Amino acid sequence: MSDQTGTVRPVQGGRILVKGAHLLTQDPAIGDLVGDVLVEDGRISEVSQSIEVSGEVRVVDGSRKALLPGMIDTHRHAWQGAIRSLGPSWSYPQYRDHVQIGLGPYFEPEDVRIGNLAADLMALDAGITTVRDESHIMNSPEHSDAAIDAHWSSGIRCVFGHGWPSTEAESWQFGSDRHHPDDIRRVREQVLNDDTARVTLYAMLRGPELSTPEIACGDIATARELDLRISMHVGLGEWGVKQQAVRRLFGSGELGPDMTFIHCCTTTDEELRMMADHGATASVAAALEVFMPGLGQPATNRLLKAGIRPSLSVDVESAVSGDMFGVMRAALAYQQLLSAGVAGGMDTGKDLPTFDAADLLSFATIEGARACGIDDRTGSISPGKEADLILMSLSDPNLLPANDVASALVTGAHAGNVEMVMVAGRILKSEGRISGAEDIVDAAAASSRRVHRAAGLQIPTSD
Ligand SMILES: [Zn+2]
User: Fold this and answer.
1) Cβ atoms of 133 and 147 closer than 8 Å
2) Looking at the domain that runs over 16-69+381-434, which CATH code has it been given?
3) Which ranges carry the Amidohydrolase-related domain (predicted)?
4) What CATH number belongs to 71-372?
């Protein structure tokens, strides 16, 4: 825990009863209903049409509001939370040159801590209660510790991906012959060894797409020895087509249900079926993939055809907005192109299944929990799960009349409609406000100036 500048202050925990809300539970045994949810000791204890309780309880009026499980972003490079919106029209090589190679080496541990806090703050504000932080800024053990410390401070649920450094960034990707940093052992043994905690560890590996087959094999063995789940970026533009990482993992017998594959834009249909057959999960960063040329197009529909319901992710806030509403809308926009027959090369002329607003909400919640291996704890409004919940106002002008709640949220919602956010029963956003946010905003602005100056790069301005 940290008592430094930038700690989100929870409003209240305790016993909470939400009454009369539209419940989009994401639990097929319960379904959607207008009803009540009782939270006790940080967990959902009861879900029903009407709950009466005696004793001390905070009652939250849910009328004309929707209660959902908190959204789960399964892939965000949170360290970039304070260098937002640098390149909305960047190509993938431009992003790599500017951020990973240009700015990354100049991040001090404190910049990583502030960046992560800013990312968590934005996420919580927009109703994201779990972030999987793909942290490829492990420039030193102090960087790792600062990154993790921020997630404890913010109050968010975090699945922390120990990645590689941004120093000498080019040597760590695209054919790298360097093994994953050994500090992951220290982090596992001394920092994040409790897999039931609010912040848990997994291994963000480069796999056979970004490192040599021998290195990939060794890194996977290390992760499994440490009993860590694994993520990999695959299907990245032409490089993905050339490397066929999933096929290689299938061939070496390493493909498994502990793996989440991120992007999959140019992963072949056959590889997607291999993933499905082995219980692997996927993360589609639809907004980033649509906005940033060079990666390929969102694989949402092809994944569905292969039998995988994907999770969704933001990726980098240096190029796209950090909320899941934009990600859901980008996925829909691309599906429309696909239906119109003007989609990208991997999809053209194929008979692909489609998805709707309700599907997108499930991708953003329960499927995210599955991809992180935490669906026994979060991702749906189910009795016994930890109370990661968001309350959305349906009477705001931009959402009226909200006859179909899922469609209204996917079509029109933004962070301003998120009225209350709760993680494990602790209310972090209340009446539309996060307490403690101001300090983080100021620190983020200072950090952005510092890293740009240190890197000798101009801070973008409107002038
Ligand atoms: Zn990424």
Assistant:
1) yes
2) 2.30.40.10
3) 67-427
4) 3.20.20.140
